[in-house]
TrEMBL record:
<feature type="disulfide bond" description="Redox-active">
    <location>
        <begin position="44"/>
        <end position="47"/>
    </location>
</feature>
<dbReference type="InterPro" id="IPR017937">
    <property type="entry name" value="Thioredoxin_CS"/>
</dbReference>
<dbReference type="InterPro" id="IPR005746">
    <property type="entry name" value="Thioredoxin"/>
</dbReference>
<feature type="active site" description="Nucleophile">
    <location>
        <position position="47"/>
    </location>
</feature>
<dbReference type="GO" id="GO:0005737">
    <property type="term" value="C:cytoplasm"/>
</dbReference>
<feature type="site" description="Contributes to redox potential value">
    <location>
        <position position="45"/>
    </location>
</feature>
<feature type="site" description="Contributes to redox potential value">
    <location>
        <position position="46"/>
    </location>
</feature>
<keyword id="KW-0614">Plasmid</keyword>
<keyword id="KW-0249">Electron transport</keyword>
<protein>
    <submittedName>
        <fullName>Thioredoxin</fullName>
    </submittedName>
</protein>
<feature type="site" description="Deprotonates C-terminal active site Cys">
    <location>
        <position position="38"/>
    </location>
</feature>
<keyword id="KW-1015">Disulfide bond</keyword>
<keyword id="KW-0676">Redox-active center</keyword>
<keyword id="KW-0813">Transport</keyword>
<dbReference type="Pfam" id="PF00085">
    <property type="entry name" value="Thioredoxin"/>
</dbReference>
<dbReference type="InterPro" id="IPR036249">
    <property type="entry name" value="Thioredoxin-like_sf"/>
</dbReference>
<feature type="active site" description="Nucleophile">
    <location>
        <position position="44"/>
    </location>
</feature>
Length: 118
């Protein structure tokens, strides 16, 4: 887990968090106000292109970026409705509010996040 936390109650983390289990993901979603979850695979070209975009957003926005390797966590990725990678799920106040399959440009992702952080 990143050490650059801004606050324990809904703040942000400046780099993506790599999720270790379904409980870990639930804890992160519950702890922070806005969480963008990237369901990815190491072999996925669009996922690799999205990685620096998400790392930048982690430092620029109030959202926490969480990364879930679908090859390591197939069952709970399926439980979240992931059918392709990358899939981006946005959670606000503990509830899933958006889900998109495919790489989205940085400005579109920033706009989605800012819609829930203001």
């Amino acid at each position: 887990m990143a050490t650059n936390t801004r606050s324990a109650s809904g703040g942000s983390i400046d780099e993506p968090i790599y999720i270790e289990s379904e409980n870990h993901l639930e804890d992160v979603i519950g702890e922070y106000d806005v969480v963008l979850v990237d369901f990815y695979a190491d072999w996925c070209g669009p996922c690799q292109m999205l990685e620096p975009v998400l790392a930048g957003l982690a430092g620029e926005t109030e959202a926490v970026i969480a990364k879930v390797d679908v090859d390591e966590h197939q069952q709970f990725a399926a439980a979240y409705g992931v059918r392709g990678v990358p899939t981006l799920a946005l959670f606000a106040d503990g509830e899933q509010v958006e889900q998109h399959t495919g790489a989205l440009p940085a400005d579109r992702l920033r706009g989605l996040i800012e819609g829930y952080t203001e």
